[in-house]
Specification:
Thiol Ester Dehydrase, Chain A; single chain; 4 helices; 148 residues; 31% helix; six-stranded antiparallel beta sheet
Length: 148
């Protein structure tokens, strides 16, 4: 499946992500990777990536993974992030990549949507620096309901 149109839709739907300079590297069935660039406007008082920028990157990646799992249904559903938690592990320096994945088999999630008209599930996100060190872990709980 070609996920390029989905990537473009997600970038245009959330102007804040463009403001941060986020780049969606890839989207797959229930997965996504997003990069937060390094820049002086993204730093905190100790010259590491700002916590809010890290969170926004993880949330964007989780949205990509969610959209990848439901790519053929995106115009027929309303997705909402209901809850999120973040655990900061190390100072985040340089570009940061958020790798997201639907935490359970996305076929089971889709089956719940089809049978009940709505579903809830979590997306797990690991944020890593350029050396591959994990700097944060995020969980985003999504709720999706069919339109109409």
């Amino acid at each position: 499946m070609d996920y390029e149109p989905l990537k473009q839709m997600l970038m245009s739907a959330v102007p804040f992500n463009r403001h941060l300079g986020l780049e969606i590297l890839d989207i797959g069935p229930g997965t996504a990777s997003v990069v937060l660039p390094e820049g002086p406007h993204l730093m905190n008082h100790v010259q590491t990536q700002h916590a809010a920028a890290l969170f926004a990157t993880a949330e964007a990646a989780s949205g990509g993974a969610m959209a990848g799992a439901f790519s053929d249904l995106m115009m027929q559903v309303t997705p909402l992030a209901r809850d999120a938690s973040i655990k900061y592990l190390k100072p985040a320096r340089g570009p940061i990549t958020a790798n997201a994945r639907v935490a359970e088999d996305h076929a089971a999630v889709r089956a719940r949507l089809e049978s009940g008209g709505k579903t809830a599930f979590e997306v797990a996100v690991d944020l890593v620096d350029a050396q591959g060190l994990k700097v944060a872990e995020v969980t985003v709980a999504w709720h999706i309901r069919k339109n109409g």
